[in-house]
Amino acid sequence: MSILEHIQAEIDGHAIVLFMKGTPRFPMCGFSSRTVQALREAGATEYRTINVLEEPEIRANLPRFSNWPTFPQLFIHGELIGGCDITLELHESGELGRMVAEVLAA
Length: 106
What we know:
Elements (H helix, E strand, L loop, with lengths): L2 H11 L2 E5 L9 H12 L6 E4 L4 H11 L6 E4 L2 E4 L1 H10 L1 H11 L1
Parallel strand pairs: 1-2
Antiparallel strand pairs: 1-3, 3-4
Family: Belongs to the glutaredoxin family. Monothiol subfamily.
GO molecular function: 2 iron, 2 sulfur cluster binding; disulfide oxidoreductase activity; metal ion binding
Organism: Luteimonas terrae
């Protein structure tokens, strides 16, 4: 399996996937920390996280895969939502909570 196939399998295999620096418990950058906090406040209790600091191949190839240059990267239902700024905007508008509720209801 190529690294791009591995990334696609992670996205296809989980309703919510967050590619981040660190872990939800120990985020290694402020953007990842704020994204985890927004997900928590939006009601996401369980989701897949991939620590790109421990997965150098994913870190190197995900920006090309998603056409998004920075981390974190949030995917919901296979779709790139975006990074920290977009996630925070969606959270502030209530849209992130609606998206998470849809995942929980499925």
